[in-house]
Amino acid sequence: FDAEPAVLAAEDVAVHFGGIKAVDGFGLNLPAGRICGILGPNGSGKSTFLAAVTRLVSLTRGRLLLDGAEYQNAPPETLARRGLSRTFQTVRLLPDLTVLENVRLGADLHARGRGVRSWFRPDTTPEVVDEAIERTGLGTARSWRPGELSYGMARRVEIARALAAKPRVLLLDEPTAGMNQRERGEISELLRTLRGDGLAQLLVEHDVQMMVDTCDHLVAMNFGALAAEGTPADVVVHPAVQEAYLGK
Ligand code: ADP
Ligand code: MG
């Protein structure tokens, strides 16, 4: 995994909030068409690491690279243009917009990063939006508003919106939180389909079985640092993971 060329690389990343070392010397390499999972107990720094990679918090130290080019000082609004999209741990949809319009925001964000100032673009290519909606199985719900969606559907709108920015790297923070087993299986299948298209994905999840079923590579975080990494089969039986994460 580490021998493959990385589309996304993070080196020795630290994010300190005053005296709290949320992330403290963590890094990883993510090749194209691969899914890397991050496991770790609550408070181990997973979301803060994703926030660092997407430039929503400043790095205390470390380097971030996309296709080998450093971007740790780039503003977050330039990242969609560079091919980096994300979903958040909590659903963030605009309640007055339809599914289609919410997904279009992702495409518009991509266009905006290219220097277009208006938020909504009348000329956004509908194809990429349609494709994102179809890929995520939301075709029948395209004119619905978030209040009419099941929780699982709302979470898929978030993924569709991220896909509408045509990313090469997709970061997902607990995309199946609150979902039942069937819905989790559907998301796992969706992520594996996207991998087949060459999309690199960084996935944070608590469901160990889903991580084993979905990921090519796992890293375990604890106290903001790397606790274990390797194949999913190796990492889930690693003593650090058994002890720190599974409480065994
Ligand atoms: P995880 O996603 O693994 O549950 P987080 O990255 O959310 O962990 O949090 C890691 C640590 O950093 C926790 O101790 C958390 O309280 C702390 N933390 C996260 N964000 C902030 C912030 N904005 N200010 C201060 N402390 C924070
Ligand atoms: Mg988190």
Automatic annotation (TrEMBL):
The keyword ATP-binding applies. SUPFAM superfamilies: P-loop containing nucleoside triphosphate hydrolases. It comes from the Bacteria. GO terms for cellular component: plasma membrane. Residues 8-248 form the ABC transporter domain. Keywords: ATP-binding, Nucleotide-binding, Transport. Pfam families: ABC_tran (PF00005), BCA_ABC_TP_C (PF12399). One of its GO terms (molecular function) is ATP hydrolysis activity. The keyword ATP-binding applies. This is ABC-type branched-subunit amino acid transport system ATPase component.
